[in-house]
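Q: For a teaching handout, I want to show students what a protein-ligand complex looks like in C-alpha coordinate form. Below are the inputs, and the small molecule is adenosine-5'-triphosphate. Please produce the holo structure.
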Amino acid sequence: MTAIAPVLTLDRVQVGYRSPDGGTRVLIEGLDLSLHPGEIVGLWGRSGTGKSSLIRHLAGLTIPLAGRIRYRSPDGGLDGDLGGFAAEALARYRREHLGYVDQSCELIGELSALDNAAIWVHGGPVAGSPRDALDTVRTQLERLGLGHRLGAPASRLSGGEAQRVAIVRALAKHPHLVVADEPTGHLDATTAREVIALLREHAQAGSAILVASHDPLVHATVDRAVRVGED
Ligand SMILES: Nc1ncnc2c1ncn2[C@@H]1O[C@H](COP(=O)(O)OP(=O)(O)OP(=O)(O)O)[C@@H](O)[C@H]1O
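A: Here is the structure, written as C-alpha coordinates, with adenosine-5'-triphosphate included.
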Protein backbone atom coordinates (compact mmCIF):
# COMPACT_ATOMS: atom_id res chain seq x y z
CA MET A 1 0.00 0.00 0.00
CA THR A 2 1.28 3.47 -0.84
CA ALA A 3 1.30 5.92 2.05
CA ILE A 4 -0.50 9.20 1.40
CA ALA A 5 2.04 11.98 0.97
CA PRO A 6 1.77 14.96 3.30
CA VAL A 7 0.42 18.21 1.93
CA LEU A 8 2.51 20.25 4.30
CA THR A 9 5.82 19.35 5.92
CA LEU A 10 7.57 21.49 8.51
CA ASP A 11 11.23 20.79 9.01
CA ARG A 12 12.86 22.37 12.09
CA VAL A 13 10.80 25.52 11.72
CA GLN A 14 11.81 28.32 14.03
CA VAL A 15 8.85 30.61 14.56
CA GLY A 16 9.47 34.21 15.50
CA TYR A 17 9.98 37.73 14.27
CA ARG A 18 12.65 40.31 13.65
CA SER A 19 12.35 43.42 15.76
CA PRO A 20 12.95 46.90 14.31
CA ASP A 21 16.32 47.13 16.14
CA GLY A 22 17.54 44.19 14.03
CA GLY A 23 17.28 41.59 16.80
CA THR A 24 15.23 38.41 16.61
CA ARG A 25 12.74 36.90 19.03
CA VAL A 26 12.24 33.15 18.84
CA LEU A 27 8.77 31.96 19.86
CA ILE A 28 8.83 28.29 18.80
CA GLU A 29 12.06 26.37 18.38
CA GLY A 30 12.62 23.65 15.78
CA LEU A 31 9.10 22.45 14.99
CA ASP A 32 8.68 19.29 12.87
CA LEU A 33 5.21 18.49 11.62
CA SER A 34 3.48 16.73 8.72
CA LEU A 35 -0.11 17.35 7.68
CA HIS A 36 -1.88 14.77 5.54
CA PRO A 37 -5.03 14.91 3.43
CA GLY A 38 -8.07 13.94 5.46
CA GLU A 39 -6.85 14.86 8.92
CA ILE A 40 -7.59 17.63 11.38
CA VAL A 41 -4.61 18.51 13.54
CA GLY A 42 -4.90 20.78 16.58
CA LEU A 43 -2.34 23.36 17.55
CA TRP A 44 -2.41 23.96 21.28
CA GLY A 45 -0.39 26.26 23.48
CA ARG A 46 -0.83 28.99 26.01
CA SER A 47 -1.62 32.52 24.90
CA GLY A 48 1.40 34.27 23.45
CA THR A 49 3.40 31.13 22.63
CA GLY A 50 3.43 31.85 18.89
CA LYS A 51 0.52 29.92 17.37
CA SER A 52 -0.75 32.84 15.29
CA SER A 53 2.80 33.62 14.23
CA LEU A 54 3.19 30.04 13.01
CA ILE A 55 -0.16 30.19 11.21
CA ARG A 56 0.99 33.36 9.40
CA HIS A 57 4.13 31.53 8.30
CA LEU A 58 1.95 28.70 6.94
CA ALA A 59 -0.26 31.21 5.15
CA GLY A 60 2.82 32.54 3.36
CA LEU A 61 2.47 35.98 4.92
CA THR A 62 5.76 35.86 6.82
CA ILE A 63 8.75 33.55 6.65
CA PRO A 64 10.14 31.65 9.63
CA LEU A 65 13.46 32.62 11.19
CA ALA A 66 14.84 29.22 10.17
CA GLY A 67 13.74 25.84 8.83
CA ARG A 68 11.58 24.86 5.87
CA ILE A 69 7.86 24.72 5.16
CA ARG A 70 7.19 22.55 2.16
CA TYR A 71 3.82 22.48 0.41
CA ARG A 72 2.98 19.74 -2.04
CA SER A 73 -0.48 19.60 -3.59
CA PRO A 74 -1.95 16.09 -3.81
CA ASP A 75 -1.64 16.15 -7.63
CA GLY A 76 1.93 17.46 -7.42
CA GLY A 77 1.01 20.53 -9.46
CA LEU A 78 2.45 22.90 -6.89
CA ASP A 79 5.44 21.71 -4.91
CA GLY A 80 8.10 23.64 -3.07
CA ASP A 81 9.23 25.57 -0.02
CA LEU A 82 6.98 28.49 0.79
CA GLY A 83 10.05 30.61 1.50
CA GLY A 84 11.41 29.84 -1.98
CA PHE A 85 8.22 30.38 -3.98
CA ALA A 86 8.36 33.17 -6.55
CA ALA A 87 5.52 35.68 -6.42
CA GLU A 88 3.39 33.82 -8.97
CA ALA A 89 3.62 30.49 -7.10
CA LEU A 90 2.96 32.14 -3.76
CA ALA A 91 -0.09 33.89 -5.18
CA ARG A 92 -1.35 30.60 -6.61
CA TYR A 93 -0.76 28.86 -3.28
CA ARG A 94 -2.86 31.46 -1.48
CA ARG A 95 -5.53 31.82 -4.14
CA GLU A 96 -6.08 28.19 -5.17
CA HIS A 97 -4.64 25.85 -2.56
CA LEU A 98 -5.00 27.46 0.85
CA GLY A 99 -8.05 28.24 2.95
CA TYR A 100 -6.94 30.68 5.61
CA VAL A 101 -9.03 31.82 8.56
CA ASP A 102 -7.22 34.49 10.53
CA GLN A 103 -8.21 35.81 13.93
CA SER A 104 -9.35 39.18 12.64
CA CYS A 105 -11.61 37.67 9.90
CA GLU A 106 -11.09 40.64 7.57
CA LEU A 107 -14.03 41.11 5.19
CA ILE A 108 -14.80 43.70 2.53
CA GLY A 109 -17.11 46.02 4.43
CA GLU A 110 -19.07 47.27 1.41
CA LEU A 111 -19.93 43.80 0.13
CA SER A 112 -22.70 41.62 1.53
CA ALA A 113 -22.05 38.61 3.74
CA LEU A 114 -22.92 36.36 0.78
CA ASP A 115 -20.60 38.15 -1.66
CA ASN A 116 -17.75 38.06 0.86
CA ALA A 117 -18.18 34.34 1.47
CA ALA A 118 -18.42 33.75 -2.28
CA ILE A 119 -15.50 35.98 -3.24
CA TRP A 120 -13.62 33.04 -4.77
CA VAL A 121 -16.70 31.95 -6.65
CA HIS A 122 -16.94 35.42 -8.19
CA GLY A 123 -13.31 35.76 -9.04
CA GLY A 124 -11.41 32.58 -8.57
CA PRO A 125 -10.86 28.90 -9.00
CA VAL A 126 -13.98 26.92 -8.21
CA ALA A 127 -14.56 23.41 -9.47
CA GLY A 128 -17.91 22.86 -11.17
CA SER A 129 -20.46 25.47 -12.10
CA PRO A 130 -20.34 28.90 -10.41
CA ARG A 131 -24.08 28.66 -9.76
CA ASP A 132 -23.66 25.37 -7.81
CA ALA A 133 -20.71 26.85 -5.92
CA LEU A 134 -22.77 29.89 -4.98
CA ASP A 135 -25.63 27.64 -3.81
CA THR A 136 -23.18 25.73 -1.62
CA VAL A 137 -21.89 28.94 -0.08
CA ARG A 138 -25.44 30.11 0.61
CA THR A 139 -26.36 26.75 2.16
CA GLN A 140 -23.29 26.80 4.39
CA LEU A 141 -24.05 30.33 5.59
CA GLU A 142 -27.63 29.25 6.36
CA ARG A 143 -26.35 26.21 8.17
CA LEU A 144 -24.19 28.43 10.35
CA GLY A 145 -27.22 30.55 11.26
CA LEU A 146 -26.69 33.42 8.81
CA GLY A 147 -29.68 32.88 6.52
CA HIS A 148 -31.17 36.21 7.62
CA ARG A 149 -27.88 38.09 7.15
CA LEU A 150 -26.95 37.07 3.58
CA GLY A 151 -27.57 40.56 2.17
CA ALA A 152 -26.18 42.53 5.11
CA PRO A 153 -23.05 44.59 4.42
CA ALA A 154 -20.08 42.99 6.13
CA SER A 155 -19.35 46.26 7.92
CA ARG A 156 -22.55 45.73 9.93
CA LEU A 157 -21.87 42.13 11.00
CA SER A 158 -21.04 41.20 14.58
CA GLY A 159 -17.68 39.56 15.37
CA GLY A 160 -19.26 36.10 15.45
CA GLU A 161 -21.17 36.68 12.22
CA ALA A 162 -18.03 37.90 10.46
CA GLN A 163 -16.14 34.87 11.73
CA ARG A 164 -18.69 32.50 10.21
CA VAL A 165 -18.53 34.33 6.87
CA ALA A 166 -14.72 34.10 6.93
CA ILE A 167 -14.90 30.35 7.57
CA VAL A 168 -17.32 29.74 4.69
CA ARG A 169 -15.13 31.94 2.45
CA ALA A 170 -12.04 29.88 3.31
CA LEU A 171 -13.79 26.58 2.59
CA ALA A 172 -15.69 27.65 -0.55
CA LYS A 173 -12.80 26.88 -2.92
CA HIS A 174 -12.37 23.39 -1.43
CA PRO A 175 -8.72 24.00 -0.60
CA HIS A 176 -6.21 21.19 -0.21
CA LEU A 177 -4.98 22.87 2.97
CA VAL A 178 -6.89 24.82 5.62
CA VAL A 179 -5.15 26.74 8.40
CA ALA A 180 -7.51 28.31 10.90
CA ASP A 181 -6.65 30.53 13.85
CA GLU A 182 -9.26 30.29 16.62
CA PRO A 183 -12.12 29.66 14.16
CA THR A 184 -14.66 29.26 16.97
CA GLY A 185 -13.30 32.05 19.17
CA HIS A 186 -16.38 34.29 18.85
CA LEU A 187 -19.02 31.56 18.64
CA ASP A 188 -21.55 29.96 20.98
CA ALA A 189 -21.26 26.20 21.53
CA THR A 190 -24.06 25.25 19.10
CA THR A 191 -22.57 27.28 16.24
CA ALA A 192 -19.06 26.12 17.10
CA ARG A 193 -20.24 22.51 16.75
CA GLU A 194 -21.59 23.30 13.28
CA VAL A 195 -18.26 24.87 12.29
CA ILE A 196 -16.42 21.81 13.56
CA ALA A 197 -18.79 19.54 11.61
CA LEU A 198 -18.12 21.60 8.46
CA LEU A 199 -14.37 21.28 8.95
CA ARG A 200 -14.74 17.53 9.43
CA GLU A 201 -16.70 17.23 6.17
CA HIS A 202 -13.94 19.07 4.32
CA ALA A 203 -11.33 16.78 5.89
CA GLN A 204 -13.36 13.75 4.80
CA ALA A 205 -13.39 15.23 1.29
CA GLY A 206 -9.58 15.31 1.37
CA SER A 207 -8.47 18.62 2.90
CA ALA A 208 -5.64 18.72 5.44
CA ILE A 209 -6.63 21.00 8.30
CA LEU A 210 -4.65 22.68 11.06
CA VAL A 211 -6.59 24.50 13.78
CA ALA A 212 -5.08 26.68 16.50
CA SER A 213 -7.56 26.87 19.32
CA HIS A 214 -8.24 27.17 23.03
CA ASP A 215 -11.78 25.82 22.59
CA PRO A 216 -12.48 22.52 24.43
CA LEU A 217 -14.98 21.59 21.70
CA VAL A 218 -12.19 21.78 19.10
CA HIS A 219 -9.82 19.95 21.44
CA ALA A 220 -12.31 17.09 21.66
CA THR A 221 -12.62 16.62 17.91
CA VAL A 222 -9.17 16.66 16.32
CA ASP A 223 -7.37 13.56 15.09
CA ARG A 224 -4.16 14.56 16.87
CA ALA A 225 -2.63 17.64 18.40
CA VAL A 226 0.68 19.43 18.50
CA ARG A 227 1.52 21.40 21.61
CA VAL A 228 3.83 24.40 21.48
CA GLY A 229 5.43 26.16 24.43
CA GLU A 230 5.23 25.01 28.02
CA ASP A 231 2.09 23.77 29.82
N1 LIG B 1 6.08 41.23 14.41
C1 LIG B 1 5.99 41.24 15.75
N2 LIG B 1 6.47 42.29 16.46
C2 LIG B 1 6.38 42.30 17.81
N3 LIG B 1 5.83 41.33 18.55
C3 LIG B 1 5.35 40.27 17.91
C4 LIG B 1 5.39 40.17 16.48
N4 LIG B 1 4.83 38.99 16.12
C5 LIG B 1 4.45 38.38 17.28
N5 LIG B 1 4.77 39.14 18.35
C6 LIG B 1 4.55 38.78 19.77
O1 LIG B 1 4.84 37.41 19.89
C7 LIG B 1 4.01 36.81 20.88
C8 LIG B 1 3.30 35.61 20.28
O2 LIG B 1 2.21 36.09 19.48
P1 LIG B 1 1.16 35.11 18.79
O3 LIG B 1 0.03 35.98 18.35
O4 LIG B 1 1.84 34.30 17.77
O5 LIG B 1 0.71 34.17 20.01
P2 LIG B 1 -0.49 33.12 20.14
O6 LIG B 1 0.09 31.86 20.69
O7 LIG B 1 -1.23 33.02 18.86
O8 LIG B 1 -1.42 33.81 21.23
P3 LIG B 1 -3.01 33.74 21.46
O9 LIG B 1 -3.31 32.32 21.89
O10 LIG B 1 -3.22 34.73 22.55
O11 LIG B 1 -3.67 34.13 20.17
C9 LIG B 1 3.10 37.90 21.39
O12 LIG B 1 3.66 38.42 22.59
C10 LIG B 1 3.12 38.92 20.25
O13 LIG B 1 2.87 40.22 20.72
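A: Two things your students might notice: The mean pLDDT is 93. The beta strands are 8-18, 24-35, 40-44, 66-72, 79-81, 98-101, 177-181, 208-212, 224-227.
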